[in-house]
Specification:
Keywords: ATP-binding, Ligase, Nucleotide-binding. This is Glutamine synthetase. It comes from Actinacidiphila oryziradicis. This protein is of the alpha+beta class. The protein has 2 domains: about 80 residues, Glutamine synthetase, N-terminal domain (Ubiquitin-like (UB roll), Roll), CATH 3.10.20.70; about 240 residues, Glutamine synthetase/guanido kinase, catalytic domain (Creatine Kinase, Chain A, domain 2). About 25% of the residues lie in helices and about 25% in strands. The strands form 2 sheets. Strands 6, 7, 8, 9, 10, 11, 12, 13 and 14 form a 9-stranded mixed beta sheet that branches. It has a 5-stranded mixed beta sheet with strand order 2-1-5-4-3, with helices on one face. A hairpin with an 8-residue loop joins strand 1 and strand 2. Helix 1 packs parallel to helix 8, helix 3 runs antiparallel to helix 8 and helix 4 packs across helix 8. Bound molecules: adenosine-5'-diphosphate (ADP) and manganese (II) ion (3 copies). One manganese (II) ion binds next to loops.
Length: about 350
């Protein structure tokens, strides 16, 4: 029996890239190989030289189609074999390799918001729901909107073998979170992109859309982030390493260098209100949800563990945020001899 391979890739849409996918029928026993697409329709090429190349990098059982069907995460290349400029995974590969001995792990908390038409799910026509307060981790039809979609997405992620570690309802109605990890930089990023694809695809069947927009509702409503939890082997054993990592992200130009690549509209979300730190001031602290980087309280108690970079937007590219954190923190951990 032939089987279906859904090739998934990241396009060149500005300012925030989108996911694309298309189906290839493969003969029984054949592996998914290199494929092509029309880059002029995805902002990845000009019409007169439109071919771009898809190279499979990871595949997962397809929970939507079931059977032997698969999802295939791809990198995008030019026809001369060089990575396309939108291919941020190609930039992560050498950094992950360079610091592989430090055994970095990431857990990313993906917040997102469901929309029905032009309003967040749960926002009444022509008005607003009750103010924030009861929705986070809430229960009941007055507080929870879209749980059927969320449960289906969770099951789909598990069936696909995604390393999903939990879900919760968020602070604004229609806003939710799932967490992927802890996993290596490449695995967490590949799997987060596939989990995002599954989110859109699952919600599609319910007539609902999902957005990673960082500020989906203007006014006194929380934005949507992608808190990025990070550890190395030494941080999982030693508190000095935790401090070196937290300090490394605040040195010199590093805060601005990172923030620039932490997602579209990051300055609009990191206002200093709504459990955020201002985007232009770096701080870290134990248990502090108003700091740029939080050291969880149990990490302080146990004197080992991980740190949480709270700055990345929901729409951040995980290939980029993991690359920047590994590069910055692992360089300083190496200099400090904490490897
Ligand atoms: P929060 O209290 O900030 O809402 P969550 O429970 O939503 O925390 O997310 C915590 C994330 O941290 C999870 O994705 C989890 O897998 C990840 N995590 C746990 N331990 C580590 C570790 N040692 N290194 C990296 N990530 C970790
Ligand atoms: Mn969380
Ligand atoms: Mn959250
Ligand atoms: Mn968090």
């Amino acid at each position: 029996m032939p089987y279906k391979a859904e090739y998934i890739w990241i396009d060149g849409t500005e300012p925030t890239a989108k996911l694309r996918s298309k189906t290839k029928i493969l003969a029984d026993g054949d592996e998914p190989g290199t494929w092509g697409f029309d880059g002029s329709s995805t902002n990845q090429a000009e019409g007169h030289a439109s071919d771009r190349v898809l190279k499979p990098v990871a595949s997962y059982p397809d929970p939507i189609r079931g059977g032997d069907h698969i999802l295939v995460m791809c990198e995008v290349f030019n026809i001369d074999g060089t990575p396309h400029e939108s291919n941020t995974r190609a930039l992560l590969r050498p950094i992950a390799e360079k610091f592989a001995a430090q055994e970095s792990l990431f857990g990313i908390e993906q917040e997102y918001t469901f929309f029905k038409g032009s309003r967040p799910l749960g926002f009444p026509e022509g008005g607003f729901p009750a103010p924030q307060g009861g929705y986070y981790c809430g229960v009941g039809a007055d507080e929870i909107f879209g749980r059927d979609v969320v449960e289906k997405h969770l099951d789909n992620c598990l069936a696909a073998g995604i390393g999903i570690s939990g879900i919760n309802a968020e602070v604004m109605p229609g806003q939710w979170e799932f967490q992927v990890g802890p996993l290596s930089p490449l695995d967490v990023s590949d799997q987060l992109w596939v989990a995002r694809w599954l989110l859109y695809r699952t919600a599609e069947d319910f007539g609902v859309s999902a957005t990673l927009d960082a500020k989906p509702a203007k006014g006194d409503w929380n934005g949507a982030g992608a808190h990025t939890n990070f550890s190395t082997k030494s941080m999982r054993e030693d508190y000095d390493a935790i401090i070196v990592a937290a300090e490394s992200l605040g040195k010199g130009n590093k805060p601005l260098e990172h923030i620039k690549h932490y997602g579209t509209g990051v300055e609009d979300r990191l206002t200093g209100a709504h459990e955020t730190a201002p985007w232009n001031e770096y701080s870290y602290g134990v248990s502090n949800r108003g700091a740029s980087v939080r050291i969880p309280w149990q990490v302080e108690v146990e004197k080992k563990g991980y740190i949480e970079d709270r700055r990345p937007n929901a729409n951040v590219d995980p290939y980029v945020v993991t690359r920047l954190i590994v590069d910055t923190a692992c360089t300083d951990l190496e200099s400090a001899g904490l490897v």
